[in-house]
Each structure stands twice: as C-alpha cells, then as structure tokens.
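Ticket #4471: structure output looks truncated?

Reporter: J.K.
Steps to reproduce: submitted the chain below (156 residues) through the standard prediction queue, then opened the result file.
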Amino acid sequence: MLNGFKDFILRGNVVSMAIGLAVGSAFTAVVTGFSKAFITPLIGLATGSVGDFSEAKFTVGKTVFPYGLAIAAAIAFVITAAVLYFLIVVPMTKIQARFAKEEAADPKSEKRDCPRCFSEIPAIASRCGHCTSEVEPVAGVLTKGDLDELAVPAQR
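Returned output as attached by the reporter:
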C-alpha cells in the first residue's frame, strides 16, 4: 500500500504540479503585496478617499461591509491572471504552434455523393459501395504517390 503511494508521489507530473503550486502561491503573494502597496493607494488618491482604498467600507445598521477588500482582491486577481496569460500562456502557445507537426490530410476522409444513388462515398472511390456503379475519382484529391502510399486495391 505504501509502495503505491510512493510511486504516485514520485511521478514527474505530481512533483511538477507541486512545484507549480508553490511558485504560483509565491507569485500571488507578490502580486497581492504590490496591489496593496501601490495600486489600491493610487485608486484611493484618484477617487479622493483618504489613505488605503482597501480599507474603504460602508455600514448598514451595525454591520460593516469592507468593499475595499473585495475590490483589492479583484485587482490582485486581474493582475495575476494578466501576467500569467501574457508571460506564460501566450509564449507557450507560440512555442507549441512552432513545434507542432502538421498532420497530413487523410484522402480517405474526403467524401462526396454518388451520382447514381446519392449515397456518401469516399472521394477516391472508383466504384460506389452502395449501388456498385462505377464512378470517376475526384480529380485533385489524390496524386499517383498518394495511391501507392494508401495501397488502394486494384480494380476487379
């Protein structure tokens, strides 16, 4: 039982995920600190409130609603999301697109209708599989090299 747990913990993806969570939480702390130290005071100056905007609140009866904390948390979230998107997601997408192998189109997946029975048949077919009438393969779908590569059976 413990051997299975050890194997699970030592897998590469679990360790990578743990490292990512640790780095992410540290990054979030930095962004939250930056937001509290610079962004919310600037918003407080712009809106005319005194001091830190995150301390803004209103009272209904004897209940206090600290809406400044919610706005500060939302600002920290937006900054974190923007930095992660523009510094991690966009570059990784570009790298993946650069190294992605372009898949060749499968000529067998091209479809067309049989001119006699109007059933859907492959574009490379020379005979309809439904009504068995002879049809001309669609020009331009295959080249001679594609026919050799696909090992299309010979006519009977």
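Triage note (M.O.): checked the attachment and the full token line is present. The radius of gyration is 32 Å.
Status: closed, working as intended.
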